[in-house]
Amino acid sequence: MQADMKMEKKASLAIALVPVIFLIIALSFNVIGVFGDDALSGSNQFILMMSGAVAALMGLLTGTKWETVLEGIEDSIKSTTGALIILLLIGSLAGAWMISGIVPAMIYYGLKILSPEIFLPASALICAMVSLATGSSWSTSATVGIALIGIGKALGLNEAMVAGAVISGAYFGDKLSPLSDTTNLAPAMAGTDLFTHIRYMLYTTIPSFVIALILFTFIGLGQSGSISIDEIQPLLSELESTYNLSPWLFLVPALVIFLIIKKMPALPAILIGTLAGIAFAPIFQSELLAELSSSLSDGSYYKLLLNALTVEVVYPSTHPILKELLVSGGMVSMLNTVWLIIAAMIFGGSMEASGFLKIISTALLKLATGTFSLVATTVGTCGLVNITASDQYLAIVLPGRMYADAYKKQGLAPENLSRTLEDSGTVTSVLIPHNTCGAYQSTVLGVDTMAYLPYAFFNYLSPITTLIYAAMGWKIKKLISPEKEAVKLTDHE
Predict the structure, then answer these.
(1) Domain assignment present for 404
(2) If 396 and its partner were Cys, which of 137, 346, 389, 425 is the partner (CB 3.0–4.6 Å)?
């Protein structure tokens, strides 16, 4: 108690901002000045840990006990346990689906159906439908997203554009799906119900996605791809000669989507998809397994399949594009992202335990004097938490707790807050490299966060649309007092 009083007495906004400023300057120098795209290979992780150390030091100087800081870090890392396990399983799933021929089959049939001109909007729509059905942007990217990246590469399209389309569609469906965890979390924090929240989100979400589709269509019209139709045929022929391709292989991804639709948690659903993929490998790819296992010392199928799940396996190919596509890294390919998330949680945990996130949020709240400024402050706080705490759930929970009363005091219905939390907290998380979502999508899709950021149209159009609605006073629902509600019911009767 004395330590808390000491912190309240000494801690200030200037002190609370020191770790944030250190993080921004250090990361900018690291990425722009030195390492570039290689910054996520380890240097950014160290910067995040050093920023956590600065936050802890500032906390200790303002009266926070070391035990409190350590507990905050532990709780922060503990909150990402599910995400870390999912990442490892996604690595295994990608390896299983590659060796069983599932991903190559998706690429093969996709190349036959999709053309470069319609590929980007089609990718966004496909991912939107899958994510809406499953309620998971992560599962969408890990299944159809990986295949669409492969098809886009084979067509000679810019992979950053394809990743932007995949992410835009995945997050659109995630936001509107009643099965999504964030879609359930936002109304719970704001104090409204799920379906009122979803209906109210339609006003901003649909226009944002329509504009994104128009942009993808416009970009797509200028895309002929760097590969002609004649050049695609050798690629298709090599896929046919390397793998036994069959539509039956799609039973596995269909099974995973079905399980998630039936509300099975993501972890067991992905594990089942991984095991099903491995089970399909000897059934459909016996010749390929025999060829690959012959290079092993003991020629063991078991060893080969375990390698596919855990470490890199390179598949035979003479085509330059397939040499790049037909590689799976297994669990080990996800370890760098796991490291990044843990380092980010160290910083976020130190900031929250030291009370600095609350101090910054409270200062921002003082700026909210009207409807627009309150919505803008909420958007800014969600973005700040996504940068500092590196977690989309905290970007919903913390501002939701902070601003619920402020919305009520200004006579605004809670669905205004829940919509703003989703429009700014959920969708912007994927635009930040060290955020759990940004790190995940970058690793799964194999595209750097800063590369796909300009093309993730939906993800930055959503907060912009929310701000426009607030500025214009469109669809800003007011609270109805009990007296007015009674009069309304009487008039209706």
Answers:
(1) no
(2) 425
pLDDT of residue 22: 92
Q: Is residue 195 one of the residues assigned to a domain?
A: yes
> How confident is the model over 319-330, as pLDDT tens digits?
777 777 777 788
Q: How many domains does one find in the chain?
A: 1
Q: Is residue 194 part of a domain?
A: yes
- How many CA atoms, within 13 angstroms, populate the side-chain half-sphere of residue 477? 18
Residue 467 covered by a domain: no
Cβ–Cβ under 8 Å, residues 277 and 102: yes
Contact between 99 and 142 (Cβ < 8 Å):
no
Residues forming beta bridges with residue 313, ordered by sequence position = 328
* Span 49-92, pLDDT tens digits: 999 999 999 999 999 999 999 999 999 888 888 878 887 888 89
